[in-house]
Design a protein that fits this description.
The structure holds two protein chains of two kinds.
Chain A (H helix, E strand, L loop, with lengths): L1 H5 L2 H16 L12 E13 L7 E7 L4 E7 L12 E11 L2 E5 L2 E5 L5
Parallel strand pairs in A: 3-5
Antiparallel strand pairs in A: 1-2, 1-4, 2-3, 4-5, 4-6
Chain B lengths: L2 H8 L15 H28 L8 H26 L6 H8 L2 H33 L7 H17 L2 H31 L21 H15 L7 H5 L8 H29 L22 H10 L3 H17 L1 H17 L17 H17 L4 H5 L4 H24 L7 H29 L5 H28 L13 E6 L5 H12 L4 E8 L2 H13 L6 E5 L6 H14 L4 E10 L3 H5 L4 H9 L5 E9 L1 H16 L11
Parallel strand pairs in B: 1-2, 1-4, 2-3, 4-5
Helix pairs in contact in B: 2-3, 2-7, 2-8, 2-10, 2-12, 2-13, 3-8, 3-10, 3-17, 4-5, 4-16, 5-6, 5-12, 5-13, 5-14, 5-16, 5-18, 6-14, 7-10, 7-12, 8-17, 11-12, 13-14, 16-17
The chains are: A alpha+beta, B mainly alpha.
Chain lengths: 116, 659
Amino acid sequence: MLNRFSSTQEELESQELQQDTAAVGCTPIGQCHDREVVTVTGTLRTVTLRPRAGVPALEAQLFDGSAALDVVWLGRRSIAGIEPGRKIIASGRVSVNRGRPVLFNPKYELRPVGQE
Amino acid sequence: MTMLPKQFLLGRPLRTAQMGETLLPKRLALPVFCSDPLSSVAYATEETLTVFAIGGATLLHLTWWVAAAIVFLLVVVVASYRQTCYAYPGGGGAYIVSADNLGETAALTAASALLVDYVLTVAVSVVAGVAAITSAAPSLASHTTAISLGFVVLLTVINLRGVKESGRAFAIPTYGFVIGIYVMFAFAAARMLTGDTIRAESSHWTFHTTSTFAGIGLMLLILRAFASGCTALTGVEAISNGVPAFKKPKSQNAALTLVIMGVLSLTMFIGITILAMLYQVHTAESPEQLGLPANYSMPTALAQIAKASFGNFTFLFYYVQAVTAAILILAANTAYNGFPMLSSILAQDRYLPRQLHNRGDRLVFSNGIILLALAASGLIVVFDANLNSIINLYIIGVFVSFTLSQSGMVRHWGRKLADSAPGTEGRGRMRRSQLINTTGAILTGLVLVIVTISKFEHGAWIVTIAMPLLFLVMKGVRKHYRNVADELRVADDARPEPPSRNHAVVLVSTLHAPALRALGYAQSIRPDNVEALTVAVDPATAEGLRRKWDSHEIGIPLKVLESPYREITRPVLDYVRTLRRESPRDVVTVLIPEYVLGHWWEQILHNQSALRLKARLLFTSGVMVISVPYLLQSAQRRKAREHKTVEAMPKSEAVIDKT
């Protein structure tokens, strides 16, 4: 109880997300290793719209409370439903790019946001 | 536009090069620096008489001795300070002399004593002057505090106009007072030579005392009378402080002014005391001591003397009363010169905030003047403009600084003597100077002890708390400045080091003109990498921006941040911090497009999230924040207006920050 008051909002959010990861039965991102096939879940913290001029790609950052992971879909500039704040489950092979884990073209599943 | 009232009150700003024009000739320096010591003769005699009144008429003859002691002390102090004027032509207040000869602790003690005393000088003299006015017009008595504050404001404005102008304003009452007193002496002398016997109206009032004094009690009473009479010495140090404000040759002029001041004070003090004794003026703290009804309003000793001397020429009596009231208020001016000067020196030595060292539009230390006015006003309000309670706090500081500065001078001459070879010329002069200063130091130290003991229980303890407090504050300020300086210092071989990469982030909420300008500017500074950042507080708005971004074909990636709690600041801060964490050797440049409005009430209508964000980002290391302003029409109209006024007058703010 006291813990809930003393911890910051970020810590509480992270805790919630981690509990959710465990409930769905996915691997926490913090425990993902290079070249490993994983299934992860979390919320999309950022979604980046690339300019039309370059290589078309949709880039997003997935956060599950333990760490952040980049999700990149090549050949697409936008995907319906991939927007900030959305919860997804993504699975694929992890590669590490400049120290950050990346999933290229993962299989993904959109999860409902709130109760509708 | 807003500058006009200021210009009207204070006059046109002066150039730095006009500094020389603000220097004072002796005839103006006298009223500027000496209104305090000169005015104190108006009450010094009375203070002494009042103390002896406790002991009854039989003790009054002791006034002669006390007056003689005060005269001797004044001569010694003036002579000592003449030495200081020559030895420290750059302004040798107690602070500088002590810092130079006795070390930091003594210097700060002197400085805190003086600062406290200057504030008290303003409060005491203004309240005393107002008391003189309200005793003439009792209907004003209920507004004493308001009138006192009004005079403080008036003095502040006059002093903000500049030293020379304040000298002109104060010359008339100061010289008027001196002339008035001398005319009074002449009248009295002429009448007595023709055989008149003049008696004050109070001469037939008899003392009703219950206590008799002998032995130690008598000694203490004499000492207390002496301490009270020593108010005549306040303000003497102002000249030695203000040597730089004199015209060349500065030291000679300052020393001469000091002597003129000494001669004027002495003759007036002696004259008034003689007349008071000859006229048998009786005065006391409360009317009951003289057997008068308690609510009887007693005329001051000077008023009684003036009334008796002028006899039928009542208009001369009123003239003396008027100039006395005026000079009592103007005595505060000595503090208005001393305080800003001292605080600026302290600020230069990093003991006080640096702003106190800045000269304002009129080349005076405006911030110091304003600070003094605020402190004095606070004191007046707290003590409800009650003279009797404030006056007891007074003089201790003066004698602390006297003693320290005299001791410092003794050390100064001692060092000089040690440096010069025996037998060289000037050694005799140095010896003599040292002797004068030694006498001064011993006497003023003695008076300090007497004053502290005799006034402690009457309220002087407040000063003994305030001074150490100020001392500690100054130490703290100095420590802070030193720590900051240590942290900012660079090694001799330090060169600018560019960061390995510069990552530019442009904050965008909607695709409007300011945003486009910021994006264009971000590209022009050629960072390694540019991206636009938006916070999806409302998903629909974010989606709209995304679509617009696409249709405008903006060649910069747009990153959309989630904001589950509808905030703007936190997601942006988190994102920027992540960037920093991942590559600590890079810098992040955050560009914030801002539209500038002409009026403050327009600002209310706009969300100030950019300002909040800027304030927060300031505390994130390695993050540069650039505002990209976009002037709206109202702001441009305002700029055009200001441009016109600026052309009409040369400068609006002339405070030069030298640090």
